[in-house]
Amino acid sequence: MKKQLIMEKALELFAKQGFEATSVQQITEHCGISKGAFYLSFKSKDELILALIDYFMNQMTSDIDYVVRNTNMEELLYKFYFTIFQTSYQHSDFARLLMKEQSHTFNNDLLVKMHYYDRLLDHTILYMVDQLYGKAVTETKYDLVYCIKGFIHTYSHLIFFYHVPLNLELLSQSLVEKTNLLAQHTTIPFISEELIQTFKSPVNEEITKEQILEIVEQKMEEMEESVEKESLLLLKEQLVEPTFRPVIIKGLIENIRNHPHCKWISFLLRRFYNF
């Protein structure tokens, strides 16, 4: 688990000193490893920073998507908002660090990465809107998606920029009310499906079965023997040669969902199997 150790120890140093002031030498000393061991895991400090962003965004994306696809309609919107703000609060220190030192990290790789996660969030919110409101918002659903994202962005500022305790339950309830009012009373659409198509990234956003297999194999190498690792092995065999019924596949994915190294692969597998 050397890669995970490097990420955890580097994050401790970044939080104290910032990205710029922290060297690879300091990271390796803090980890108790050689520079050679570091470069076996990461090509550079920038790649390490992008890996940390990936880690946090993977956690958030997979948690939100799971809530949206596995919550009853009565609680869905509330749990969606609560999960987003709770996860944002948990990772707020790292988010503030990124914003503080964005001159260092604000490069094309980061822009592409953040756009990718933004598109994934779009898909999840659109699925939720369809489930909640159906045909009643056929003409305005894309506007509603953007309004929901606007709520998230605006109220997240309270978490990222102000060090005050927030009642996340009340915040979520308030946004449920606002969202329902918009869904019920908005009549003039602005964002059409055609306009949405012009926003799409030229980068292919759909991950292939071969890419999923590669990630599964990588995760299996990183993990010790466990129920989760055995489940990953069975899921890998299923990808290569399908034999299991959907209920078994869903159960195997559920086995790995809460493992910290498997949240992202569980998200990808749920999308692949349309669960």
Structural overview:
- The protein has 275 residues and is mostly helical.
- The chain folds into 3 domains: 1-42, Arc Repressor Mutant, subunit A (Orthogonal Bundle); 43-199, Tetracycline Repressor, domain 2, CATH 1.10.357; 209-273, no CATH class.
- The protein is 76% helix and 0% strand.
- The chain has helices spanning 2-17, 24-31, 35-41, 45-69, 73-90, 92-100, 102-105, 108-133, 141-161, 168-185, 193-199, 209-222, 227-240, 246-256, 263-273.
- Helix 4 runs antiparallel to helix 5, helix 5 (73-90) crosses helix 10 (168-185) and helix 13 (227-240) runs antiparallel to helix 14 (246-256).
- The longest helix has 26 residues, at 108-133.
- The chain is globular.
- The two termini are 30 Å apart.
- The model has no long low-confidence stretch (mean pLDDT 87).
- Keywords: DNA-binding, Repressor.
- InterPro entries: Homeodomain-like_sf, HTH-type_Tx_Regulator, HTH_TetR.
- This is TetR family transcriptional regulator.
Task: Summarize this structure briefly.
The chain has 275 residues and is mainly alpha-helical. 76% of the residues lie in helices and 0% in strands.
Describe the protein's topology.
Blueprint: H1 2-17, H2 24-31, H3 35-41, H4 45-69, H5 73-90, H6 92-100, H7 102-105, H8 108-133, H9 141-161, H10 168-185, H11 193-199, H12 209-222, H13 227-240, H14 246-256, H15 263-273
Oligomer: single chain
Shape field: globular
**Which radius of gyration do the C-alpha atoms yield?**
20 Å
Q: Mean of the pLDDT scores?
A: 87
CATH topology of the largest domain: Tetracycline Repressor, domain 2
CATH-defined architecture of the largest domain: Orthogonal Bundle
Give the terminus-to-terminus CA distance.
30 Å
| Order of helical and strand elements | HHHHHHHHHHHHHHH
